[in-house]
Amino acid sequence: MKLRAIKGIILKDLKEIRREKMVLFWIFVFPLMWITLLGGIWGGESPPITVDVGVVYFNETTPFTAYDVVKIMENVTIEGVHIFNIRTYPSENSGVDALKHGKIDALIVFPKGFGANITRGLQAKVYVYFDKSDPQNYQIVSGAIKGFFSEFEKRMQEKSIEITFQYMERYMPKETSISIDEIKKHLLAMANPLVLEEREVKGETASAIQFYVTSFIGIQFLFATMISIGAGTLEEIEKGTLRRIAASPATAWDFLIGKMLSTFITIMVSIFVGITYAKLVFGETVFPSPLGWLIIFIAAVFSMSLGLAIAMGTRSIKATNAIVNLISMPLLFLAAIVIPESILPEWARPIANYFPLGRALKDLRLLELYHRPASEIMPDVLWLALGSFCMLVIAVLLYNWAVKRLK
Description:
Layout: H1 3-16, H2 21-42, E1 51-56, H3 66-74, E2 77-78, E3 81-82, E4 84-88, H4 92-100, E5 106-109, H5 114-120, E6 127-130, H6 135-171, H7 180-191, H8 208-239, H9 241-246, H10 252-282, H11 290-314, H12 317-334, H13 349-354, H14 356-368, H15 374-406
Parallel strand pairs: 1-4, 1-5
Antiparallel strand pairs: 2-3, 5-6
């Protein structure tokens, strides 16, 4: 191995970058585009949602009516934002028609006698229509409406018990075997048998920007390194560079090491561009620790080795690009690179946990975003290093086979 030859190959590759528009795109344009797009969509704080709700009710002369419930809904706010945008419809059919055409998110129908039943302490029914064609929107809308009526029902129970207490204190004999306070406790327990008390614990969390900065890093060592080393080596074969190196004092090994190092330097520059841009534009970023950079390097070695193995096996730039795309595109999602692992289906989670590039990104996030101790990450790092070494051995064997065919 000749260090001077390796240095020459690295410098040659770096100089050629200026003439390669696609390489310049991956280094400078892609980081800015990715972080701007994802950061702009998900980076800011999401305001409270507003649900368009249609209501149908009948005028009643009772002390409490459906109209009062609607007025309460109109005044429900979170952080100053009204949660329900109420639209009144004259009939159930007109409201359902509006729901079918997407004019409202849900329809609430208060049938005749609703107010009379509530006032008399009887059970009252409410009909709610949902459009379930969009499951995600249905979950949001139904959660908001069901949450409102759950809290409203609780307040009604408390009011009913309060009225019952007033009657008990007025008409119940003073001398009884059980006190009024004990009866109150039992009635309260019947109305609310379980009290859920919410307490906040501030654990380690990552912002959307930080998550997508690590996604960008994952894309670089998954896709960019694989395609760069594979297609780049085949181009050198087509140009005859590798044949000339094989006939010179510099060995094919010098070429391989120089090529991989120049690819890694290019990707590192791109990662630094993305990290810096996120900090300047969004005010936060992720700058890996030394162990984090080691994980990135190991993942890049695996990716470069896989890309080189594909290139040497196919010996075709078009075939290499096609196979790399075929592998990389599904892995962007299945390896939890661009979406959180928590929303992956059960069958896909082993890919994120055990495929080396998915596992590397997961460990990088555990280390840098959730601040897990290095001792917890190190066993995975050792396994990743072993997997990268095995992949490198396969790539080298295929590379030697290709070089021998040049001679």
